[in-house]
Design goal:
The chain is an all-beta fold and 333 residues long. It has no helices and 29 strands. The chain is 0% helix and 53% strand.
């Protein structure tokens, strides 16, 4: 496993897959990988040890598989559970090591990864409902057993929209994506439910669909996919309070969707290697200072020289980056 600022080991293949996620767990990391084939979709969870080995925990054949062309986001995992959206736009959550999945709610978007909040005493799951205009962010609390409890809450601000929720401390951050100036919102999560969403700050012109990641302890910073020069896709970084202009993480040199993820003060972002929307990507990993200063990028590529859809997790000085390349999911430790 690599320390922040150090080179990562050569990527190790976990197995076939198009989407995945990684999270810190006791003694190492856990991962979830989603793979589509002619017969449907399979969701496999793994334990990753500090020496770089992987061992399967559970394997689930999804009852309602999503055709690859329709799926625009993958599963989400934390130290105890995994969640995913199926073809009927139903959101499900299940224990990492066996146990039946529990339905959370629907409709859930296939374009946005759900969010799991597990900081402190807060446990919740949030998702994007894009069945109408504007889109909305909905959430449910999770009990001590990890199963949904209580009714779903609509966190969308009055008169606005909501999309792309991500966990941040003991709460959530999400966007109200607008045609011109999009706005970031916060919502707290507590034992009794959810606080009213409050404006964090304007962030500017974001891509459709937007990708975001919250960095550091609240108030923290926000990485987001922005519309760059000549309508290219860029990744920007702003403090989650005030009105400081965005600084670039990935400059707008290509088109198409870029992915960004963060854990603690580490972030990973797709960076295009050419201009066309489907051109190959590589991953840029940065440490981010409390003042928003970016450390030098560490570049990660798979065996074929490409990498995309990066996800990152840190545990003390240990770091894991999971990504997809050529139909397989890899992890760099």
């Amino acid at each position: 496993l690599a320390e922040p600022g150090c080179a990562f080991a050569d990527p190790a293949a976990i197995g076939p897959g198009e989407w995945g996620d990684v999270a810190a767990s006791e003694g190492g990391f856990v991962a979830a990988v989603l793979h589509a084939d002619e017969a449907g979709e399979t969701l496999i969870t793994f334990r990753l040890d500090p020496a770089g080995g992987s061992a399967p925990l559970t394997e689930r054949r999804l009852d309602h598989p999503v055709p690859p062309a329709r799926r625009g986001a993958g599963p989400i995992v934390d130290a105890a559970r995994v969640a995913w959206v199926d073809a009927e736009r139903g959101l499900h959550v299940a224990p990492l090591q066996g146990g039946d999945p529990a339905p959370v709610g629907q409709p859930a978007s296939l374009r946005f990864t759900p969010a799991l909040v597990s900081g402190g005493g807060a446990r919740a799951i949030a998702w994007t409902d894009d069945s109408g205009t504007p889109m909305r962010v909905r959430a449910r609390r999770l009990g001590a057993d990890g199963r949904p409890t209580g009714a779903a809450a609509d966190l969308t601000p009055s008169g606005g929209g909501g999309a792309a929720p991500v966990a941040h401390g003991e709460g959530l951050v999400f966007l109200d994506p607008r045609a011109a100036m999009s706005v970031a919102h916060r919502a707290s999560v507590g034992p009794q439910g959810f606080g009213e969403a409050a404006v964090a700050r304007p962030v500017g012109l974001v891509t459709a669909p937007p990708r975001i990641a919250a960095i550091g302890d609240p108030p923290g910073l926000l990485a987001f996919t922005a519309v760059g020069a000549a309508a290219t896709t860029a990744v920007g970084l702003v403090p989650l309070e005030g009105a400081t202009p965005a600084q670039p993480i990935v400059r707008g040199t290509g088109y198409g969707t870029l992915h960004v993820d963060a854990d603690g003060r580490l972030l990973v972002a797709d960076a295009p290697l050419d201009r066309p929307p489907e051109s190959p990507r590589e991953l840029h990993v940065h440490a981010v200072g409390a003042d928003g200063a970016l450390g030098e990028a560490t570049v990660i590529r798979g065996p074929d020289g490409h990498a995309r859809r990066g996800r990152i997790a840190s545990s003390g000085e240990l770091v894991a980056v999971l990504f997809e390349a050529a139909g397989r999911v890899y992890v760099s430790l």
